[in-house]
Amino acid sequence: MTQLPDRTHAAALDVADPLAGYRARFAVPPGVLYFDGNSLGPPVVGAADALAAVVRDQWGRELVGAWNSCGWIDLARKVAAAIAPLIGACADEVAVADSTSVNLFKVLAAGLALDPSRKVILGERENFPTDLYIAQGLADLLGGGVSLRLVDRGDLEAALDEDVAILMLTQVDFRTGERHDLDAWTARAHARGALMVWDLAHSAGAFPVDLARCDADFAVGCGYKYLNGGPGAPSFVFAARRLHGRLRSPLWGWMGHAEPFAFATAYRPAEGALQFQVGTPPILSLAALELGVAAIAEIGVQRLWAKSCALTSLFLELVEPACAAHGLELASPRDPQRRGSQVSLRHPQGYAIVQALAARGVVGDFRAPDILRFGFAPAYLRFVDVRDAVRILDEVMADRSWDQPHFHQRRKVT
Ligand SMILES: Cc1ncc(COP(=O)(O)O)c(C=O)c1O
Questions:
Q1: Of the residues 207, 224, 276, 351, which is catalytic?
Q2: Do 197 and 107 meet the contact criterion of CB atoms below 8 Å apart?
Q3: Which of 100, 259, 270, 315 lies deepest, with the highest CB count within 10 Å?
Q4: Probe ligand 1: pick from 40, 130, 344, max atoms within 8 Å of CB?
């Protein structure tokens, strides 16, 4: 077993933590050390009652009238306006609808339509697969020479030539947590005449993002990770205001029409990012997302990021000796400015180790082929959680308790 400092130091950090009080706002089950808020954030306390009230008092009493009387028709716009400051955007630049995958499809198609002379979407081979699939499928659908060019991270700059219509990047790598420089890549894309599309799935709600400063063209991101919107929460989509006059979503739905209830025969897009809404918004999911976003906005992304840095530096300080003792490798950059709010480790038996940790209450996740991923959502994670998780990891490795048949059995979701 590795020598670990006792809990006193971590406990003192919790006492001094200005965000400590916010933990009570999130429903983290007792006994769980939750390092997977980067996959699915927990509900805010009161979410269950709030959703029950929507069903009982709004849907149950007002029925269809609730679209007006309870403001359902404006809820997506309201949530979009609450997300906007978290990503450095204005309210009319953000819409909340559908999944990140679907929104990526919309912005890639809209971006390609802005300059038909350029036909290449440039991306990273290691990007999250849905981004790759959506771009492949779109290229296949459009034909006419549109293609997806995938390269390794180190070759991106050389591949950014005058054929590239769109540079599509995910800011935080889902495996390693390595972070791209939003400003630098957006500037490089623009300097070569390409548009910049960011996937902010692991960014929004974790650290400050300034889309206005970097002058990005489009962005998408998840509602269910650091925004705590619940499983399958609607995603957000950003389109810079300077593009609004020329913007053309590929999916023309009635909720993206300028006047849905005019029931006009011809499509006329709503102003701004609102045209990215397509069909009827999912009110129950939006109600949950509204609560999650409000909690994160109240704490503030600057303070969240400051605590994230403190949590991950404690984790690294404690985990690195354990890694050395047990053949685990650090897969994330040490410098917090070069990564998101996660730290990943590598081990050939990563899957079984993650299962064994979960059985002891330490919930992280596994990403093939060999990544043990630990997310640090500072709104509810404590310094003692970090210390206890490292102790349990050390024990699981030292006694090889991960090496039991049931921990090797692959489940559908890893
Ligand atoms: C970087 C990234 N993009 C997109 C997605 C998928 O988003 P959605 O399920 O909303 O389509 C994920 C999911 O984890 C992700 O990590």
A1: 224
A2: yes
A3: 100
A4: 130
